Amino acid sequence: MNGVNDFSFKIGTVNGTGSASANGLLMQAIFRMGIPVTGKNIFPSNIQGLPTWYEIRVSKDGYTARPSEVDLVVALNPSTYAKDVATVRPGGFLLYDSSWPLDPDLVREGITIMGIPFGRICVENFQGDRDRTLLRNIVYAGSLAALLNIDMDVVSGMLSEKYGKKPKLLESNHKAIQLGYEYAKANFQCPLPFHLEKMDATSDSILIDGNTACALGAVFAGATVGAWYPITPATALMEQFKAFCEKYRVDKATGEHKFAILQAEDELAAAGIIIGAGWAGARAFTNTSGPGISLMQEFIGLAYYTDIPAVFFDIQRCGPATGMPTRTQQADLLSLAYASHGDTKHLVLFPANPGEAFELAVQSFDLSERFQTPVFVATDLDIGMNDWMVKRLSWDDSYRPDRGKVLHKEDLDKIQKFSRYLDVDGDGIAARTLPGVGGKGAYFVRGSGHDKHAAYTEDSDAYQELVDRLKRKFEHAATVMPKPVFTLQPGAEVGLVTIGGCDAAVREAADRLRDQGVTVDVMRIRAFPFGSEVREFFDAHDRNFVIEQNRDAQLRALLAVELGIPRDSMTSILDYGGMPLTAKVVVDGVLRHLAQVPA
Amino acid sequence: MTSIAKPPVRHPSSRTNGLGLTLRDYEGAMSTLCAGCGHDSVTAAVVQAGWELELEPHRIGKMSGIGCSSKTTAYFMKQSHGFNSVHGRMPSVTSGAAAANRSLTYIGVSGDGDSLSIGLGQLSHAIRRNVNMLYLLENNGVYGLTKGQFSASADVGSKSKKGEANEQTPIDPVLLALTLGATFVARSFSGDKKQLVPIIKAGIAHKGFAIIDIISPCVSFNDHEGSTKSYAFTREHEVEAVHTDFVPLQREITVPETDEEVRTVTLHDGGMVRLRATASDYNPTNRESAYAHVRACQTRGEIATGLLFVDENGRDMHDYLRTPATPLVDLPFESLCPGKAALDSLMERYR
Question: Inter-chain contact B338–A208, Cβ cutoff 8 Å?
Answer without folding.
Answer: no
